[in-house]
Amino acid sequence: MGEIIFARIDDRLIHGQVMTKWVKGYNCNSIFVIDDQLAKDEFMKNIYIMSASTANITLKILTVDDSIKLWEKDHYDGFKVILLFKNIKTVKDTIEKGLPIKKLNIGGIAKSVDRKFIIPTVSLNKEETESLLKLEENYGVEIFFQTVPESKRVGLDAALGVFNIKR
Q: Residues in domain PTS EIIB type-4 (predicted)?
């Protein structure tokens, strides 16, 4: 039986920090990218798969529904998995459909007009922050902001404070 080590939101998906810090630091043997749009883009899928092949890890790029089916089939069949997502909406959809994510690391979401920084690499808007709170309250997901394993781990309360959201 496999194991979901943790899930990470990083709008850049696979890059040096993910490959060298998180995968090795958590002794994982696989990364499953869950993104409906990317899973349908054969060209981009091949680029990601080729880039991961040199790191001796298994990389799968799955739709939300396929990730659920694969979990239900064999609990990821012996893989020690980091799940990667581009955004909060996809994580929320995946958890609501039944994937048992217990730890959610938010490591990289770019700044835009309606967003505020929580840590230097993560910016959120109020709606996203409220969605994270619901994931914590309704599904028991431990949510934390952290760029790399060596950096300070910041809890969800930091984001709630930025938007004056009460528990």
A: 1-167
To the question of pTM greater than 0.70 for the whole model, the response is yes
Residues 8-28: tens digit of each pLDDT: 999 988 877 666 778 888 888
Query: Which H, E and C letters describe the chain, residue by residue?
Result: CCEEEEEEEECCCCCHHHHHHHHHHCCCCEEEEECHHHHCCHHHHHHHHHHHHCCCCEEEEECHHHHHHHHHHHCCCCCEEEEEECCHHHHHHHHHCCCCCCEEEEEEECCCCCCEEEECCEEECHHHHHHHHHHHHHHCCEEEECCCCCCCCEEHHHHHHHCCCCC
